[in-house]
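Suppose you are handed only two things: the residues of a chain and a line of SMILES describing NAP. What would the bound structure be? This form records exactly that question and the answer produced for it, so the two can be stored side by side and reused later without any lookup.

QUESTION INPUTS
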Amino acid sequence: MTTPLDGRTALVTGSTSGIGRATADALAARGAHVIVSGRDEARCELMVKALRSAGAAADFVAADLATPAGARSLAERALRVTGRVDVLVNNAGIYSFGPTTSRTETDVDGIYGVNLKAPFFLVQALVPHMVERGSGAVVNVLTGAAHRGSAAAGLYGSSKAALLLLTKAWAAEFGPSGVRVNAVSPGMIRTEGTAGGAGLEPIAATIPARRLGDPHEVAAAVAFLASDEAAYVHGAILPVDGGATAA
Ligand SMILES: NC(=O)c1ccc[n+]([C@@H]2O[C@H](COP(=O)([O-])OP(=O)(O)OC[C@H]3O[C@@H](n4cnc5c(N)ncnc54)[C@H](OP(=O)(O)O)[C@@H]3O)[C@@H](O)[C@H]2O)c1
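ANSWER OUTPUT
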């Protein structure tokens, strides 16, 4: 049976943990050759081992996306793995919260560097190759905090709100050349990254789904947007948040 992503190479940033790891699993299960990435080589290696032992094609390229040079280097090395990147999932992200008066220049540079500038420079380096082939898909991972103001999440939310606008701008820029750009907007998802965050359950109990989300539920939405099943979907922002932004 031909699977929807057979023959395609997918780079998933931040795929050693949480939503990114579940996304790497989902894309591999659909036939993609997955390039795993994160800063920690040992975690990358473990993830690749797990994918290969499930019968998938996988490699890793470790990278620190805190600087544009790190993003460019990841793009260059990822292109060498199979000679192409057909699907780019901009998932790596850092989140920390606090009032504006408490945030330092290091916080601003760190959050904007990983959440916004890295996707920008990865798209700049990888999408021209997709354009040359006339096909490709980019999926950005946003957040509910990109859609509304909240007192402690201005810095994090604004980094993702800029990525939200870029999703639409890139859809306009690259869609005519056959490259689709879309985004998922997760709500409260149980991951390693949110494990320490107390108090998510009581909030989740008030949303329509009445629970936290699972990373695989976000991954399924990413896999849909990355596949030809979403061939007429351009510039969409798909909430995967148990209804949190709707109600
Ligand atoms: N979990 C949620 O409730 C939630 C909700 C809305 C949106 N999101 C978004 O979903 C994405 C994933 O969240 P998550 O909860 O799954 O995160 P997570 O469990 O903390 O995992 C983050 C991933 O990003 C990588 N990463 C972090 N800093 C990096 C850097 N400087 N360079 C390269 N890779 C880096 C990490 O690997 P290394 O540490 O090895 O580098 C890891 O693989 C993020 O963009 C987040 O903003 C999450």
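WHAT STANDS OUT: The chain has one domain: 9-240. The pocket of NAP is lined by residues 14, 16-20, 38-40, 43, 63-66, 91-95, 114, 141, 143, 186, 188-189, 191-194 (CB under 6 Å).
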